[in-house]
């Protein structure tokens, strides 16, 4: 095996499965070259080189939604991204191209198909985006994180995530994680996270329940998102046992020390929280194609999490739902037990298996890969 291209990016949540797959491929094929392709604007431009993988960019060319000058320029610019992807695939001698969705994946799928390079698709959200719907038409090797995702031929394998999270034993890790975060391991602990982007609605709801939080004898670790900590520090930072952090680089520590988490329902957060068995209150972000509500659905239906609509989340939610739940160990234990019925913790390995299979099939004469069959 020589080289594998992994295309995608955007937020931390989008980059994490790319890195987790890259690491799984390196573990099993130490000599493989993994080339990640993203855009210069996405977080991948920082996170991928930091993680020690080769990185290349192509232009970010969003599909225009209305007639405009940009719409007229779109076909030429989009064709340019396919040409650039073809060049990267040729130069790296890629044996397979993996896409996780987003701007970069569509040109990656189309370029790979035109070069008869096997394609592997992973969809992180319950509701698939356009790029992966295109990818699924061109590949027999399609995976998704959540069971029931409506994507042609998709196999639910879970979400590739860092092994520090997928193999976390929360109880065993709690004491040291608490020390690293400067928390007391003996207190009931609430974590709050708005995903890699932060969430003003969550911040406001907690601020409105300031008195009740102060009286409850609990501690809070609140991840605000980069550059968004100031309003939270002003509203809550002076409370004893209220810890405000912009960003946790070791999310596993937060998951280990928390007894309950309030979170947006990004595909990454829901998958990780379910995998580690942490009870959750999800407040889906009401944007995009409504994917966040659906991401949370299987955890909520299994009894591992509770859902609160964004418009309904306020100080009363914190005072009347979150704090009583945080102080009810029996209910929390039942939610943790319910989590155990859901997660697939080895999605990185299972996606790496699919890459190996795709390459193997692509090598066989008359192999099943449609990228070859279609020629
Ligand atoms: C994978 C994916 O498709 N993600 C969704 C998510 O992206 P977004 O990246 O915002 O959120 P996710 O829940 O998917 O992932 C967050 C990731 O950031 C990590 N983390 C978070 C906070 C922190 O302090 N430290 C840290 O490391 C978490 O461990 C997790 O891996 O929200 C978008 C809306 O904005 C959705 O439409 C996206 O579909």
What does this structure look like?
The protein is of the alpha/beta class. It folds into two domains: 3-162 and 345-373, Glycogen Phosphorylase B (Rossmann fold, 3-Layer(aba) Sandwich); 168-339, Rossmann fold (3-Layer(aba) Sandwich), CATH 3.40.50. It has helices at residues 12-28, 44-50, 69-92, 105-114, 130-138, 163-166, 170-181, 200-208, 210-215, 230-236, 251-257, 267-276, 291-302, 315-326, 329-339, 347-363, 370-373, and strands at 3-7, 33-38, 54-57, 96-99, 119-123, 141-144, 155-156, 189-193, 219-223, 242-245, 260-263, 280-282, 305-307. β1 (3-7), α1 and β2 form a beta-alpha-beta unit. α7 packs across α11 (251-257) and α8 (200-208) crosses α14 (315-326). It is globular. The protein binds uridine-diphosphate-N-acetylglucosamine. Residues 11-14, 16, 124-125, 193, 195-197, 223, 247-248, 251, 266-269, 272, 285, 288, 291 line the site of uridine-diphosphate-N-acetylglucosamine (UD1). Uridine-diphosphate-N-acetylglucosamine (UD1) binds next to α1 and α12.
């Amino acid at each position: 095996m020589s080289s594998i291209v992994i295309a995608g990016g955007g937020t931390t949540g989008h980059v994490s499965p790319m890195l987790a797959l890259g690491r799984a491929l390196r573990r099993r094929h130490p000599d493989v070259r993994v080339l990640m392709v993203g855009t210069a604007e996405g977080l991948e431009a920082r996170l991928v080189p930091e993680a020690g993988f080769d990185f290349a960019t192509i232009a970010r060319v969003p599909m225009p939604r209305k007639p405009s000058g940009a719409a007229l320029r779109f076909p030429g610019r989009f064709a340019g991204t396919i040409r650039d992807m073809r060049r990267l695939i040729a130069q790296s001698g890629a044996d397979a191209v993996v896409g996780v969705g987003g701007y970069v994946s569509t040109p990656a799928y189309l370029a790979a198909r035109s070069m008869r390079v096997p394609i592997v698709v992973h969809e992180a959200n319950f509701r698939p985006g356009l790029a992966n719907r295109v990818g699924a038409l061109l590949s027999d090797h399609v995976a998704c994180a959540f069971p029931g995702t409506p994507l042609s031929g998709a196999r639910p394998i879970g979400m590739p995530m860092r092994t520090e999270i997928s193999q976390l034993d929360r109880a065993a890790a709690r004491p040291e994680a608490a020390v690293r975060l400067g928390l007391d391991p003996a207190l009931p602990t609430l974590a709050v996270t708005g995903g890699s982007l932060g969430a003003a609605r969550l911040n406001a709801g907690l601020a409105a329940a300031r008195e009740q939080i102060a009286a409850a004898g609990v501690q809070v670790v609140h991840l605000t998102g980069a550059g968004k900590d100031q309003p939270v520090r002003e509203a809550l930072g002076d409370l004893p046992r209220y810890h405000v952090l912009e960003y946790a680089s070791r999310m596993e520590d937060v998951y280990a020390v928390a007894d309950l988490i309030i979170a947006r329902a990004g595909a990454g957060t829901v998958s990780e929280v379910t995998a580690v068995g942490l009870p959750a209150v999800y407040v889906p972000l009401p944007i995009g194609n409504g994917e966040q509500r659906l991401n949370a659905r299987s955890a909520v239906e299994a009894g591992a999490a509770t859902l609160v609509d964004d418009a309904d989340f306020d100080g009363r939610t914190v005072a009347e739902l979150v704090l009583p739940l945080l102080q009810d160990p029996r209910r929390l234990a039942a939610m943790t037990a319910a989590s155990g019925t859901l997660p697939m913790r080895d999605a990185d390995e299972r996606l790496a298996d699919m890459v190996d299979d795709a390459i193997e099939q692509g090598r066989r004469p008359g192999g099943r890969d449609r990228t070859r069959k279609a020629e």
